[in-house]
Amino acid sequence: MASRLPTVYLFYGDDPFSIAETIQLLRDKLGDPDSAGLNVQHFSAGRLDLQALEQACRSHPFLAARRLILLSEAESLPRNPEWQERFQALLEDLPQSCALVFLEQQDLGKPKAEEQYRRSSPLHAWASAHPDRCYLRRFSRPRGPRFAQWLADRSRALGGQIHPSAAALLAEFVSEDQHLGDQELRKLLDFVDYLREIQVQDVERLTPFAGQADVFAMVDAVGHKDGSRSLQLIHQLLQAHEPAYVFAMLTRQFRLLLQAREALDHRQDPQQALQVHPFVARKVTEQSGNFQLPELERAFRRLLAIDLAHKRGEADLEVALESYLAELTQ
Q1: Does the model's pTM come out above 0.70?
Q2: CA dist 162 → 79, 197, 204 (Å)
Q3: What is the pLDDT of residues 214-256, one digit of tens each?
Q4: 280: which of 60, 75, 171, 276 fits an S-S bond (Cβ 3.0–4.6 Å)?
């Protein structure tokens, strides 16, 4: 007797790259790509019509064994008892011809984030109580040393190899962006023709700093009190990335500058203090020479104040970043 397939899938976490790849694997299992699209339907919890979802789940697949129903932003589903009762009745009565996939966005990088999520998520509670019907999977975005390891694993999955030092440098260059890391890996593997290991010099030669290049250039402009150039660069970054991402990159850069300046003032080796790739350490150490320690301390405290004001809803992050750079270059 064939084993029963899950009818509910709960994917939660903060790794959209891996989630997207897993969903593609589920799509591939639907068979012929030309007809697979007819058996895939997308819903969003923010504007969900429960009756339409019920109808989609109970419809027969077309020239395939199953239908794939995707519901994003599942963390926003209504939680009132009457709605939940009807919703859970649907989950418990799904036909084998339906694969209902819930996507819950959860930042797993914060302390106790997973514990808090499991306590608060009705979907996770239902999935945990129905292991025979639900496939539950956690997707955690690789951070720090794990990101360099992810690049090495990804390189092998693509049919190539990358030296650990090259992976560490590439991780710095792409600012732990998986989509960009995957794109750059493919380019590097094409360059070495999959015949040898990617080396540091290959990364230095072929991979741009991505957003980090503009951050380095912007910090140079700030160090030389060039207000117009720093504002031009922040505008470029904000056009290419979300304000929160730009803020994170800028905060990281000033934290590294502060650490390098402190190390230099105490006659210590900045490389040991920074614990980043030597290439990045050299760049940061050079830039720290344009600042005094009290100046960097004030700059970093101001970033923390901006972060708090934004989280309290008292400041627009994009406007605050522009004002911040104007202050630094006065």
Answers
A1: no
A2: 47, 5, 13
A3: 677 777 788 778 888 888 888 888 887 778 877 877 888 888 8
A4: 276
